[in-house]
Protein backbone atom coordinates (compact mmCIF):
# COMPACT_ATOMS: atom_id res chain seq x y z
CA UNK A 1 0.00 0.00 0.00
CA UNK A 2 2.82 2.36 0.90
CA UNK A 3 4.11 2.80 -2.61
CA UNK A 4 1.05 3.85 -4.49
CA UNK A 5 0.00 6.05 -1.63
CA UNK A 6 3.18 8.06 -1.95
CA UNK A 7 2.49 8.39 -5.64
CA UNK A 8 -0.98 9.71 -5.33
CA UNK A 9 -0.23 11.94 -2.41
CA UNK A 10 2.37 13.52 -4.65
CA UNK A 11 -0.15 13.86 -7.48
CA UNK A 12 -2.70 15.30 -5.10
CA UNK A 13 -0.44 18.12 -4.17
CA UNK A 14 0.06 19.15 -7.78
CA UNK A 15 -2.20 21.83 -9.16
CA UNK A 16 -4.52 20.91 -11.97
CA UNK A 17 -5.30 23.51 -14.61
CA UNK A 18 -8.96 24.54 -14.46
CA UNK A 19 -9.13 25.37 -18.17
CA UNK A 20 -10.26 21.88 -19.09
CA UNK A 21 -11.84 21.70 -22.49
CA UNK A 22 -13.19 18.17 -22.85
CA UNK A 23 -14.70 15.66 -20.52
CA UNK A 24 -16.17 12.21 -20.77
CA UNK A 25 -19.02 10.76 -18.79
CA UNK A 26 -19.17 7.00 -18.73
CA UNK A 27 -22.08 5.02 -17.32
CA UNK A 28 -20.93 1.90 -15.48
CA UNK A 29 -23.10 -0.94 -16.84
CA UNK A 30 -24.13 -4.27 -15.32
CA UNK A 31 -24.13 -3.11 -11.73
CA UNK A 32 -25.60 -5.76 -9.43
CA UNK A 33 -28.46 -5.15 -7.01
CA UNK A 34 -27.08 -3.73 -3.76
CA UNK A 35 -28.05 -5.26 -0.40
CA UNK A 36 -27.78 -3.96 3.17
CA UNK A 37 -24.22 -4.26 4.46
CA UNK A 38 -22.59 -4.43 1.01
CA UNK A 39 -19.27 -2.60 0.65
CA UNK A 40 -19.77 -0.29 -2.32
CA UNK A 41 -16.05 0.18 -2.85
CA UNK A 42 -15.62 -3.58 -3.30
CA UNK A 43 -18.68 -3.86 -5.54
CA UNK A 44 -17.62 -0.96 -7.77
CA UNK A 45 -14.09 -2.32 -8.04
CA UNK A 46 -15.24 -5.76 -9.06
CA UNK A 47 -17.67 -4.39 -11.67
CA UNK A 48 -15.00 -2.10 -13.13
CA UNK A 49 -12.32 -4.80 -13.16
CA UNK A 50 -14.59 -7.06 -15.20
CA UNK A 51 -15.44 -4.20 -17.59
CA UNK A 52 -13.40 -2.40 -20.24
CA UNK A 53 -13.42 0.80 -18.17
CA UNK A 54 -10.10 1.77 -16.62
CA UNK A 55 -9.77 4.18 -13.72
CA UNK A 56 -7.48 7.21 -13.95
CA UNK A 57 -6.06 9.79 -11.59
CA UNK A 58 -8.67 12.44 -10.65
CA UNK A 59 -11.63 10.51 -12.06
CA UNK A 60 -14.88 11.48 -10.36
CA UNK A 61 -17.32 8.74 -9.38
CA UNK A 62 -20.92 9.91 -9.24
CA UNK A 63 -23.01 7.42 -7.29
CA UNK A 64 -26.80 7.36 -7.09
CA UNK A 65 -27.98 7.98 -3.54
CA UNK A 66 -30.30 4.98 -3.77
CA UNK A 67 -27.55 2.36 -3.75
CA UNK A 68 -25.75 4.12 -0.90
CA UNK A 69 -28.98 4.05 1.10
CA UNK A 70 -29.40 0.36 0.35
CA UNK A 71 -25.84 -0.50 1.37
CA UNK A 72 -26.30 1.51 4.58
CA UNK A 73 -29.61 -0.25 5.37
CA UNK A 74 -31.58 2.99 5.07
CA UNK A 75 -34.65 1.07 3.89
CA UNK A 76 -37.86 1.16 5.92
CA UNK A 77 -40.76 -1.30 5.70
CA UNK A 78 -44.05 0.57 5.61
CA UNK A 79 -45.62 -2.26 7.64
CA UNK A 80 -43.58 -1.31 10.66
CA UNK A 81 -44.68 2.34 10.77
CA UNK A 82 -47.49 3.75 12.97
CA UNK A 83 -48.59 7.08 11.46
CA UNK A 84 -49.25 10.05 13.75
CA UNK A 85 -52.50 12.02 13.61
CA UNK A 86 -50.88 14.66 11.37
CA UNK A 87 -49.53 12.02 8.99
CA UNK A 88 -52.98 10.37 8.83
CA UNK A 89 -54.75 13.68 8.21
CA UNK A 90 -52.34 14.79 5.47
CA UNK A 91 -52.15 11.37 3.85
CA UNK A 92 -55.90 10.93 3.76
CA UNK A 93 -56.49 14.45 2.47
CA UNK A 94 -54.06 14.00 -0.43
CA UNK A 95 -54.45 10.33 -1.25
CA UNK A 96 -51.03 9.39 0.07
CA UNK A 97 -50.03 6.55 2.34
CA UNK A 98 -50.04 8.00 5.91
CA UNK A 99 -47.15 5.67 6.80
CA UNK A 100 -45.04 7.26 4.06
CA UNK A 101 -45.92 10.73 5.42
CA UNK A 102 -44.91 9.58 8.88
CA UNK A 103 -41.52 8.48 7.57
CA UNK A 104 -41.07 11.83 5.77
CA UNK A 105 -41.85 13.70 9.00
CA UNK A 106 -39.37 11.52 10.90
CA UNK A 107 -36.64 12.75 8.53
CA UNK A 108 -37.67 16.42 8.79
CA UNK A 109 -36.12 19.28 10.75
CA UNK A 110 -38.42 22.04 9.41
CA UNK A 111 -41.43 22.17 7.11
CA UNK A 112 -40.91 24.72 4.31
CA UNK A 113 -44.22 24.22 2.48
CA UNK A 114 -47.11 21.88 3.26
CA UNK A 115 -49.51 22.85 0.55
CA UNK A 116 -51.60 21.38 -2.28
CA UNK A 117 -50.38 17.88 -1.50
CA UNK A 118 -46.71 18.93 -1.56
CA UNK A 119 -44.42 18.47 1.38
CA UNK A 120 -41.23 20.52 0.92
CA UNK A 121 -39.04 20.21 3.99
CA UNK A 122 -35.59 20.78 5.35
CA UNK A 123 -34.37 17.32 6.16
CA UNK A 124 -32.25 16.34 9.15
CA UNK A 125 -29.08 17.04 7.15
CA UNK A 126 -30.26 20.50 6.03
CA UNK A 127 -31.27 19.69 2.43
CA UNK A 128 -34.46 21.41 1.30
CA UNK A 129 -36.37 19.02 -0.93
CA UNK A 130 -39.67 17.23 -1.49
CA UNK A 131 -40.54 14.48 1.00
CA UNK A 132 -37.18 14.72 2.82
CA UNK A 133 -35.71 12.56 0.04
CA UNK A 134 -37.83 9.58 1.09
CA UNK A 135 -38.56 7.62 -2.07
CA UNK A 136 -40.32 4.47 -3.18
CA UNK A 137 -38.74 3.98 -6.61
CA UNK A 138 -36.11 1.33 -7.28
CA UNK A 139 -36.76 -0.41 -3.95
CA UNK A 140 -38.85 -3.52 -3.15
CA UNK A 141 -42.59 -3.00 -2.93
CA UNK A 142 -43.76 -2.14 0.56
CA UNK A 143 -40.48 -0.39 1.40
CA UNK A 144 -39.08 3.12 0.96
CA UNK A 145 -35.55 4.46 1.08
CA UNK A 146 -34.26 7.24 3.31
CA UNK A 147 -31.29 9.40 2.41
CA UNK A 148 -27.97 8.28 3.92
CA UNK A 149 -27.53 9.70 7.42
CA UNK A 150 -24.43 11.69 6.49
CA UNK A 151 -23.88 11.83 2.73
CA UNK A 152 -20.48 13.54 2.99
CA UNK A 153 -19.24 10.85 5.30
CA UNK A 154 -20.56 8.15 2.96
CA UNK A 155 -18.80 9.84 0.03
CA UNK A 156 -15.61 10.05 2.00
CA UNK A 157 -15.71 6.38 3.01
CA UNK A 158 -16.39 5.17 -0.54
CA UNK A 159 -13.63 7.41 -1.87
CA UNK A 160 -11.17 5.90 0.59
CA UNK A 161 -12.18 2.37 -0.42
CA UNK A 162 -11.80 3.19 -4.12
CA UNK A 163 -8.48 4.99 -3.71
CA UNK A 164 -7.12 1.99 -1.83
CA UNK A 165 -8.28 -0.36 -4.57
CA UNK A 166 -7.12 1.67 -7.55
CA UNK A 167 -4.12 3.45 -6.07
CA UNK A 168 -4.92 6.85 -7.56
CA UNK A 169 -6.51 10.03 -6.20
CA UNK A 170 -10.25 10.05 -6.93
CA UNK A 171 -13.37 12.00 -6.00
CA UNK A 172 -16.81 10.75 -5.07
CA UNK A 173 -20.16 12.51 -5.40
CA UNK A 174 -23.40 11.05 -4.06
CA UNK A 175 -26.24 12.35 -6.22
CA UNK A 176 -29.99 12.54 -5.91
CA UNK A 177 -32.76 13.99 -8.03
CA UNK A 178 -34.31 17.22 -6.68
CA UNK A 179 -37.05 19.54 -7.95
CA UNK A 180 -36.75 23.31 -8.35
CA UNK A 181 -39.35 25.92 -7.36
CA UNK A 182 -39.82 27.73 -10.66
CA UNK A 183 -38.71 25.22 -13.23
CA UNK A 184 -40.49 22.01 -14.12
CA UNK A 185 -38.58 18.76 -14.07
CA UNK A 186 -35.96 17.40 -11.72
CA UNK A 187 -32.18 17.55 -11.94
CA UNK A 188 -29.52 15.68 -10.03
CA UNK A 189 -27.65 17.51 -7.29
CA UNK A 190 -24.74 16.50 -5.04
CA UNK A 191 -25.71 15.47 -1.49
CA UNK A 192 -22.31 14.09 -0.58
CA UNK A 193 -18.90 15.15 -1.87
CA UNK A 194 -15.39 13.98 -1.16
CA UNK A 195 -12.18 14.92 -2.94
CA UNK A 196 -13.14 18.12 -4.73
CA UNK A 197 -14.43 21.56 -3.79
CA UNK A 198 -18.17 21.66 -4.53
CA UNK A 199 -18.11 25.40 -5.19
CA UNK A 200 -15.75 27.05 -7.66
CA UNK A 201 -15.14 30.65 -6.77
CA UNK A 202 -14.66 33.17 -9.57
CA UNK A 203 -15.29 36.14 -7.31
CA UNK A 204 -12.56 38.70 -7.67
CA UNK A 205 -11.26 37.19 -10.94
CA UNK A 206 -11.32 39.25 -14.11
CA UNK A 207 -13.23 38.41 -17.25
CA UNK A 208 -11.76 39.10 -20.70
CA UNK A 209 -12.94 42.73 -20.51
CA UNK A 210 -11.20 43.36 -17.21
CA UNK A 211 -14.47 43.41 -15.26
CA UNK A 212 -14.06 41.94 -11.80
CA UNK A 213 -16.60 39.14 -11.34
CA UNK A 214 -18.76 39.80 -8.31
CA UNK A 215 -21.30 37.06 -7.83
CA UNK A 216 -19.94 34.07 -9.65
CA UNK A 217 -19.66 31.07 -7.40
CA UNK A 218 -20.34 27.96 -9.49
CA UNK A 219 -21.80 24.84 -7.88
CA UNK A 220 -19.63 22.44 -9.89
CA UNK A 221 -20.53 19.44 -7.72
CA UNK A 222 -24.20 19.92 -8.64
CA UNK A 223 -23.28 20.35 -12.30
CA UNK A 224 -21.22 17.15 -12.17
CA UNK A 225 -24.17 15.33 -10.58
CA UNK A 226 -26.50 16.62 -13.30
CA UNK A 227 -24.03 15.68 -16.03
CA UNK A 228 -23.80 12.14 -14.64
CA UNK A 229 -27.59 11.76 -14.52
CA UNK A 230 -27.60 12.05 -18.31
CA UNK A 231 -25.97 8.63 -18.60
CA UNK A 232 -27.59 7.04 -15.56
CA UNK A 233 -31.27 7.28 -16.41
CA UNK A 234 -33.96 6.24 -13.99
CA UNK A 235 -34.98 2.78 -15.10
CA UNK A 236 -31.81 1.48 -16.72
CA UNK A 237 -29.97 0.22 -13.66
CA UNK A 238 -26.89 2.42 -14.14
CA UNK A 239 -26.34 3.79 -10.63
CA UNK A 240 -22.73 4.89 -11.21
CA UNK A 241 -21.02 7.17 -13.69
CA UNK A 242 -17.37 8.04 -14.07
CA UNK A 243 -16.46 11.59 -15.09
CA UNK A 244 -13.04 12.03 -16.62
CA UNK A 245 -11.25 15.17 -17.74
CA UNK A 246 -12.66 17.68 -15.28
CA UNK A 247 -9.67 19.61 -14.00
CA UNK A 248 -9.83 20.27 -10.28
CA UNK A 249 -7.68 20.70 -7.25
CA UNK A 250 -8.04 18.05 -4.58
CA UNK A 251 -9.89 19.61 -1.66
CA UNK A 252 -11.37 18.73 1.68
CA UNK A 253 -14.65 20.42 0.67
CA UNK A 254 -18.00 18.76 1.31
CA UNK A 255 -21.59 19.04 0.11
CA UNK A 256 -22.74 20.70 3.32
CA UNK A 257 -20.97 23.86 2.07
CA UNK A 258 -23.60 24.10 -0.63
CA UNK A 259 -26.47 24.52 1.83
CA UNK A 260 -27.52 28.16 1.89
CA UNK A 261 -27.48 29.52 5.44
CA UNK A 262 -30.83 30.63 6.89
CA UNK A 263 -29.81 34.30 6.94
CA UNK A 264 -29.31 34.28 3.14
CA UNK A 265 -32.51 32.33 2.43
CA UNK A 266 -35.27 34.46 0.86
CA UNK A 267 -37.64 31.50 0.50
CA UNK A 268 -38.04 29.98 3.95
CA UNK B 1 -29.45 21.40 -50.35
CA UNK B 2 -32.17 18.93 -51.30
CA UNK B 3 -30.07 15.82 -50.92
CA UNK B 4 -28.66 16.15 -47.47
CA UNK B 5 -31.99 17.45 -46.22
CA UNK B 6 -33.67 14.24 -47.30
CA UNK B 7 -30.98 12.32 -45.48
CA UNK B 8 -31.33 14.06 -42.21
CA UNK B 9 -35.08 14.21 -42.31
CA UNK B 10 -34.94 10.44 -42.61
CA UNK B 11 -32.53 10.23 -39.68
CA UNK B 12 -34.68 12.55 -37.65
CA UNK B 13 -37.64 10.25 -37.92
CA UNK B 14 -35.68 7.28 -36.61
CA UNK B 15 -35.85 6.56 -32.91
CA UNK B 16 -32.68 6.84 -30.88
CA UNK B 17 -32.22 4.51 -27.92
CA UNK B 18 -32.32 6.45 -24.66
CA UNK B 19 -30.07 3.97 -22.85
CA UNK B 20 -26.92 5.91 -23.76
CA UNK B 21 -23.97 5.05 -21.55
CA UNK B 22 -21.22 7.48 -22.50
CA UNK B 23 -21.08 11.05 -23.58
CA UNK B 24 -18.42 13.57 -24.43
CA UNK B 25 -18.47 17.27 -23.78
CA UNK B 26 -16.08 19.29 -25.86
CA UNK B 27 -15.33 22.97 -25.30
CA UNK B 28 -14.93 24.87 -28.58
CA UNK B 29 -11.70 26.88 -28.18
CA UNK B 30 -10.52 30.08 -29.85
CA UNK B 31 -13.93 31.59 -30.32
CA UNK B 32 -13.70 35.22 -31.51
CA UNK B 33 -15.36 38.15 -29.77
CA UNK B 34 -18.97 38.45 -31.02
CA UNK B 35 -20.31 41.79 -32.28
CA UNK B 36 -23.85 43.03 -32.84
CA UNK B 37 -25.27 41.67 -36.09
CA UNK B 38 -22.90 38.70 -36.31
CA UNK B 39 -24.40 35.45 -37.61
CA UNK B 40 -23.56 32.88 -34.92
CA UNK B 41 -24.16 29.96 -37.28
CA UNK B 42 -21.48 31.30 -39.64
CA UNK B 43 -19.07 32.08 -36.81
CA UNK B 44 -19.46 28.65 -35.21
CA UNK B 45 -19.03 26.93 -38.55
CA UNK B 46 -15.85 28.78 -39.36
CA UNK B 47 -14.33 28.14 -35.92
CA UNK B 48 -15.18 24.43 -36.10
CA UNK B 49 -13.92 24.05 -39.68
CA UNK B 50 -10.55 25.43 -38.65
CA UNK B 51 -10.42 23.17 -35.58
CA UNK B 52 -9.98 19.42 -35.21
CA UNK B 53 -13.56 19.04 -33.97
CA UNK B 54 -15.94 17.33 -36.39
CA UNK B 55 -19.71 17.60 -36.15
CA UNK B 56 -21.88 14.48 -36.02
CA UNK B 57 -25.55 13.64 -36.32
CA UNK B 58 -27.47 14.54 -33.11
CA UNK B 59 -24.65 16.59 -31.59
CA UNK B 60 -25.95 19.16 -29.14
CA UNK B 61 -24.51 22.69 -29.23
CA UNK B 62 -24.71 24.47 -25.91
CA UNK B 63 -24.18 28.21 -26.42
CA UNK B 64 -23.61 30.78 -23.69
CA UNK B 65 -26.45 33.30 -23.58
CA UNK B 66 -23.94 36.14 -23.53
CA UNK B 67 -22.78 35.70 -27.13
CA UNK B 68 -26.36 35.34 -28.35
CA UNK B 69 -27.23 38.60 -26.61
CA UNK B 70 -24.23 40.28 -28.21
CA UNK B 71 -25.08 39.04 -31.71
CA UNK B 72 -28.67 40.19 -31.21
CA UNK B 73 -27.55 43.64 -30.04
CA UNK B 74 -29.02 43.12 -26.56
CA UNK B 75 -26.37 45.36 -25.01
CA UNK B 76 -27.39 48.55 -23.21
CA UNK B 77 -25.12 51.51 -22.42
CA UNK B 78 -25.65 52.62 -18.84
CA UNK B 79 -25.07 56.22 -19.96
CA UNK B 80 -28.31 56.20 -21.89
CA UNK B 81 -30.52 55.15 -18.98
CA UNK B 82 -32.57 57.52 -16.76
CA UNK B 83 -33.37 55.69 -13.52
CA UNK B 84 -36.86 55.95 -12.01
CA UNK B 85 -37.44 56.95 -8.39
CA UNK B 86 -37.74 53.28 -7.36
CA UNK B 87 -34.50 52.37 -9.14
CA UNK B 88 -32.72 55.29 -7.48
CA UNK B 89 -34.06 54.40 -4.03
CA UNK B 90 -33.15 50.72 -4.31
CA UNK B 91 -29.78 51.36 -5.92
CA UNK B 92 -28.77 53.94 -3.34
CA UNK B 93 -29.96 51.79 -0.43
CA UNK B 94 -27.93 48.79 -1.58
CA UNK B 95 -24.89 50.38 -3.18
CA UNK B 96 -25.89 49.44 -6.71
CA UNK B 97 -25.95 51.55 -9.85
CA UNK B 98 -29.53 52.91 -10.12
CA UNK B 99 -29.23 52.74 -13.92
CA UNK B 100 -28.59 49.01 -13.69
CA UNK B 101 -31.65 48.61 -11.45
CA UNK B 102 -33.70 50.58 -13.98
CA UNK B 103 -32.63 48.18 -16.73
CA UNK B 104 -33.50 45.18 -14.54
CA UNK B 105 -36.98 46.62 -13.90
CA UNK B 106 -37.45 47.23 -17.63
CA UNK B 107 -36.97 43.48 -18.19
CA UNK B 108 -39.32 42.46 -15.37
CA UNK B 109 -42.87 41.18 -15.46
CA UNK B 110 -43.25 40.49 -11.72
CA UNK B 111 -41.07 41.01 -8.67
CA UNK B 112 -40.72 37.78 -6.68
CA UNK B 113 -38.43 39.08 -3.90
CA UNK B 114 -36.97 42.55 -3.38
CA UNK B 115 -35.16 42.01 -0.13
CA UNK B 116 -31.72 42.44 1.48
CA UNK B 117 -30.28 43.86 -1.74
CA UNK B 118 -31.56 40.95 -3.84
CA UNK B 119 -33.88 41.44 -6.77
CA UNK B 120 -35.43 38.11 -7.79
CA UNK B 121 -37.91 38.66 -10.59
CA UNK B 122 -39.93 36.95 -13.26
CA UNK B 123 -38.52 38.37 -16.46
CA UNK B 124 -40.52 39.25 -19.58
CA UNK B 125 -40.05 35.70 -20.90
CA UNK B 126 -41.20 34.07 -17.65
CA UNK B 127 -37.83 33.03 -16.20
CA UNK B 128 -37.50 33.56 -12.46
CA UNK B 129 -33.96 34.67 -11.71
CA UNK B 130 -31.79 37.35 -10.11
CA UNK B 131 -31.73 40.74 -11.87
CA UNK B 132 -33.85 39.54 -14.82
CA UNK B 133 -30.68 38.03 -16.28
CA UNK B 134 -29.16 41.50 -16.78
CA UNK B 135 -25.42 41.12 -16.36
CA UNK B 136 -22.25 43.16 -16.54
CA UNK B 137 -19.67 40.39 -16.89
CA UNK B 138 -17.95 39.63 -20.20
CA UNK B 139 -19.19 42.86 -21.80
CA UNK B 140 -17.42 46.22 -22.32
CA UNK B 141 -17.24 48.47 -19.28
CA UNK B 142 -20.18 50.83 -19.02
CA UNK B 143 -22.53 48.36 -20.71
CA UNK B 144 -24.71 45.45 -19.57
CA UNK B 145 -26.29 42.59 -21.47
CA UNK B 146 -29.97 41.69 -21.52
CA UNK B 147 -31.21 38.16 -22.18
CA UNK B 148 -32.22 37.49 -25.80
CA UNK B 149 -35.83 38.54 -26.42
CA UNK B 150 -36.97 35.01 -27.28
CA UNK B 151 -34.35 32.40 -26.40
CA UNK B 152 -36.24 29.51 -28.02
CA UNK B 153 -36.47 31.42 -31.26
CA UNK B 154 -32.76 32.25 -31.10
CA UNK B 155 -31.95 28.56 -30.50
CA UNK B 156 -34.15 27.56 -33.39
CA UNK B 157 -32.54 30.05 -35.78
CA UNK B 158 -28.99 29.02 -34.85
CA UNK B 159 -29.92 25.35 -35.18
CA UNK B 160 -31.25 25.96 -38.66
CA UNK B 161 -28.06 27.78 -39.67
CA UNK B 162 -25.88 24.99 -38.28
CA UNK B 163 -27.93 22.19 -39.84
CA UNK B 164 -27.67 23.90 -43.22
CA UNK B 165 -23.91 24.23 -42.85
CA UNK B 166 -23.20 20.73 -41.57
CA UNK B 167 -25.98 18.78 -43.24
CA UNK B 168 -26.89 16.73 -40.17
CA UNK B 169 -29.64 16.96 -37.55
CA UNK B 170 -28.45 18.92 -34.52
CA UNK B 171 -29.83 20.48 -31.36
CA UNK B 172 -29.10 23.85 -29.82
CA UNK B 173 -29.39 24.93 -26.18
CA UNK B 174 -28.86 28.52 -25.03
CA UNK B 175 -27.57 28.42 -21.47
CA UNK B 176 -27.25 30.91 -18.66
CA UNK B 177 -26.09 30.73 -15.08
CA UNK B 178 -28.88 30.89 -12.45
CA UNK B 179 -28.93 30.74 -8.66
CA UNK B 180 -31.13 28.45 -6.57
CA UNK B 181 -33.04 29.36 -3.41
CA UNK B 182 -31.66 26.85 -0.92
CA UNK B 183 -28.34 25.90 -2.39
CA UNK B 184 -25.30 28.11 -2.67
CA UNK B 185 -23.60 28.54 -6.01
CA UNK B 186 -24.94 28.93 -9.51
CA UNK B 187 -25.57 26.29 -12.18
CA UNK B 188 -26.27 26.64 -15.87
CA UNK B 189 -29.84 26.13 -17.08
CA UNK B 190 -31.38 26.09 -20.55
CA UNK B 191 -33.19 29.29 -21.56
CA UNK B 192 -33.60 28.33 -25.20
CA UNK B 193 -33.93 24.87 -26.71
CA UNK B 194 -34.33 23.62 -30.25
CA UNK B 195 -34.16 20.05 -31.51
CA UNK B 196 -34.74 18.02 -28.37
CA UNK B 197 -37.41 17.67 -25.70
CA UNK B 198 -36.24 19.60 -22.61
CA UNK B 199 -38.17 17.30 -20.26
CA UNK B 200 -37.79 13.53 -20.27
CA UNK B 201 -40.88 11.86 -18.92
CA UNK B 202 -40.48 8.66 -16.92
CA UNK B 203 -43.95 8.89 -15.42
CA UNK B 204 -45.84 5.63 -15.88
CA UNK B 205 -42.66 3.67 -16.68
CA UNK B 206 -41.60 0.82 -14.42
CA UNK B 207 -38.36 0.63 -12.47
CA UNK B 208 -36.49 -2.66 -12.06
CA UNK B 209 -38.76 -3.62 -9.13
CA UNK B 210 -41.95 -3.12 -11.11
CA UNK B 211 -42.83 0.11 -9.25
CA UNK B 212 -44.57 2.58 -11.55
CA UNK B 213 -42.65 5.89 -11.41
CA UNK B 214 -44.96 8.70 -10.38
CA UNK B 215 -43.09 11.96 -10.23
CA UNK B 216 -40.07 11.53 -12.41
CA UNK B 217 -39.87 14.17 -15.09
CA UNK B 218 -36.19 14.94 -15.73
CA UNK B 219 -35.14 18.37 -16.98
CA UNK B 220 -32.50 17.02 -19.35
CA UNK B 221 -32.02 20.36 -21.12
CA UNK B 222 -30.98 21.93 -17.82
CA UNK B 223 -28.69 18.99 -17.07
CA UNK B 224 -27.11 19.34 -20.52
CA UNK B 225 -26.59 23.07 -19.90
CA UNK B 226 -24.97 22.33 -16.51
CA UNK B 227 -22.77 19.64 -18.04
CA UNK B 228 -21.58 22.07 -20.73
CA UNK B 229 -20.74 24.76 -18.17
CA UNK B 230 -18.11 22.40 -16.75
CA UNK B 231 -15.99 22.90 -19.88
CA UNK B 232 -16.95 26.50 -20.57
CA UNK B 233 -15.84 28.23 -17.38
CA UNK B 234 -16.50 31.88 -16.77
CA UNK B 235 -13.26 33.61 -17.67
CA UNK B 236 -11.80 31.28 -20.28
CA UNK B 237 -13.57 32.54 -23.38
CA UNK B 238 -15.16 29.20 -24.25
CA UNK B 239 -18.75 30.21 -24.99
CA UNK B 240 -19.70 27.02 -26.85
CA UNK B 241 -19.62 23.34 -26.01
CA UNK B 242 -20.53 20.33 -28.10
CA UNK B 243 -22.22 17.37 -26.38
CA UNK B 244 -21.96 14.07 -28.19
CA UNK B 245 -23.47 10.71 -27.34
CA UNK B 246 -26.66 11.79 -25.59
CA UNK B 247 -29.38 9.66 -27.13
CA UNK B 248 -32.55 11.59 -27.81
CA UNK B 249 -35.48 11.77 -30.13
CA UNK B 250 -35.72 14.88 -32.25
CA UNK B 251 -38.57 16.99 -30.90
CA UNK B 252 -40.24 20.33 -31.38
CA UNK B 253 -39.97 21.00 -27.63
CA UNK B 254 -38.78 24.33 -26.30
CA UNK B 255 -37.41 25.79 -23.06
CA UNK B 256 -40.67 27.57 -22.28
CA UNK B 257 -42.08 24.13 -21.37
CA UNK B 258 -39.75 24.12 -18.38
CA UNK B 259 -41.31 27.19 -16.78
CA UNK B 260 -43.51 26.08 -13.88
CA UNK B 261 -47.03 27.44 -14.27
CA UNK B 262 -48.24 29.88 -11.58
CA UNK B 263 -50.82 27.41 -10.22
CA UNK B 264 -48.04 24.89 -9.40
CA UNK B 265 -45.68 27.49 -7.91
CA UNK B 266 -45.38 27.27 -4.11
CA UNK B 267 -42.77 30.07 -3.94
CA UNK B 268 -44.31 33.09 -5.66
Can you characterise this structure?
- Two copies of one chain form a homodimer.
- Helix content of chain A is 28%, strand content 24%.
- Chain A is of the alpha+beta class and 268 residues long.
- In chain A, a hairpin with a 4-residue loop joins strand 5 (118-123) and strand 6.
- In chain A, helix 2 packs across helix 6 (151-166) and helix 4 (85-93) crosses helix 5 (98-106).
- The longest helix of chain A is centred in the middle third of the chain and has 16 residues, at 151-166.
- At the A-B interface, strand 1, strand 9, strand 11 and helix 7 of A face strand 1, strand 9, strand 11 and helix 7 of B.
Share in helix of chain A: 25-40%
Most extensive protein-chain contact, per-chain counts: A-B, 79 and 78 residues
Beta percentage of chain A is: 15-25%
Task: Please give the number of β-strands of chain A.
Answer: 13
Q: CATH class of the largest domain in chain A, please?
A: Alpha Beta
Strand order of the largest sheet of chain A: 1-12-2-8-9-13
CATH superfamily label of the largest domain in chain A: CofE-like
Keywords:
alpha+beta, homodimer, six-stranded mixed β-sheet, three-stranded antiparallel β-sheet, 60s Ribosomal Protein L30, Chain: A, 268 residues, CofE-like fold, 13 strands, 2 domains
Short recap of the structure:
With 268 residues, chain A is of the alpha+beta class.
Topology:
The structure is a homodimer of 268-residue chains.
Chain A: H1 2-13, E1 22-27, H2 40-49, E2 60-64, H3 65-71, E3 75-77, H4 85-93, H5 98-106, E4 108-115, E5 118-123, E6 128-130, E7 143-145, H6 151-166, E8 171-178, E9 187-196, E10 200-201, E11 217-218, H7 220-232, E12 240-244, E13 250-251
Parallel strand pairs in A: 2-8
Antiparallel strand pairs in A: 1-12, 2-12, 3-7, 4-5, 5-6, 8-9, 9-13, 10-11
